[in-house]
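Handoff note, outgoing to incoming analyst
You'll be picking up this chain. Sequence as last confirmed:
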Amino acid sequence: MYNSLFWDAGRFGHHSLGYGYGMYDGGMWIMGLVVLAVIAALTLSIIAIVRTSKKRNASGEALRIVEERYAKGELTKEEYDVMKKDLR
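Most recent structure output, in case you need it:
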């Protein structure tokens, strides 16, 4: 009796727990595609996070340089404002 609850191959001719399609009738394909989709989504998310963090660091460094140049008197207030606006 216990065996017939899980492997009801006599009624349907395959091991699918007695309902619909089992893992042997295409379910493995679907599971494989789902796993690949999840891995691809995680990979693309990590790449996007790394790229945006690099851009922020580069922008912060450029803004620091502009602020230093303004503090040294190399830039006028108007030039400083334009460069600061462009960097943000």
